[in-house]
Amino acid sequence: MFAFFNVLALFLFINLLYSQTTNCQNRAGNAVADWTIVYKAPGQATGKIIEATAAAGNWQDGAALIANDQGHSFATALQHVVRENQNVKFLAYNNAPPGVPSIKTKSNSKGVIILSTTTDSAAWIVHTVPGFPAAKTGYNWPLAENARGHLLICLTILESQINAIAASLLLVQPLIHYNDIPKTETAAMPYFNKLAEGKIPTLPPFTSRQTIQSSKYGEHELIFHSSFRTVFSKLFHAIAPLRVYVENYHDFLEIYKKVIVKALKKTIKVWSRRDSKLKGDCRVSQRHIRLIKSPAVVVDHNTNLEADITNWAVSDPGNIFCHIDKPYFKNQTREPAMAICIDNINIFTRFDAIAAQLE
């Protein structure tokens, strides 16, 4: 499951020569990790990686070129997305799906939900890469994206948590380009089934509260609260320091200030492309938006907002890191947006170091 201090080392063998992987993977792609994050700076072909299994969580160089189809974390985590395995199924969403040019969508979310049909084993991957990954056609990292900065985040989860993730995704209306998860696996997942069928929630108003029970790991609490002004979701609140905040396009809210800052009750330092309309905001004591200066450095890899398309924030004080799927633009107030916020000192420390210089 997705927990920050326990490592689940589990290999599932179909036969002596072929292994089934539906969990996040360590740097080398040869062992399960609870979570893994790759930050590929502009112009880099490998990127930096942090993982739950690494001592002190320091950034390391990637084990192989990110375009390689083996020998590194995400090549292994995605091996049964890009190749066939009868016991591994997945749903993939991307506002710029593989091989389909010029699709207009208000969502900017990109990711994959992967599960095993034979064990309680699953992963949620969120990322920033257009056209990636393509289903069942081989590992296809788009080489043109080496020029840009990207984030890839993998979270090992329980299958029982997929419905909570789907409930949040349902509000941001991602473009689903592949789904082969059978309904026999999702019979008890009403939000997932609505997501897979492309149903749009009727909002606003919408209010519901659901507690998800896992027999081994306790309760996960999913909360939606909506009025004509506010929509947000908290995910896994009871047992894991992971929260998902959603701003629905009906709300006309700015997700950084009106959703994230409000929910965390902390100042956030933001790395994101920005327009001339939204600025840093210091008007409310201890609930500011501070903009990180560009260029910045990921250990020894340089990054800049002209080429880096990632959007992330760290809290001040810590220990929270957030990945946001929309840039700090005024026009995102009229579009759905999602923020995935993780309370973990190792992740926070690595990103907070990048945020050393503020405007």
From TrEMBL:
Keyword Signal set for record: yes
Signal peptide, first to last residue: 1-19
Protein name (database record): Deoxyribonuclease-2-alpha
Family assignment from sequence similarity: Belongs to the DNase II family.
Keywords: Hydrolase, Signal
One term of GO molecular function: deoxyribonuclease II activity
One family name in Pfam for this protein: DNase_II
Entry-linked InterPro entries: DNase_II
Organism this protein belongs to: Trichinella nativa
GO biological process terms on file: apoptotic DNA fragmentation
Transmembrane segments: none
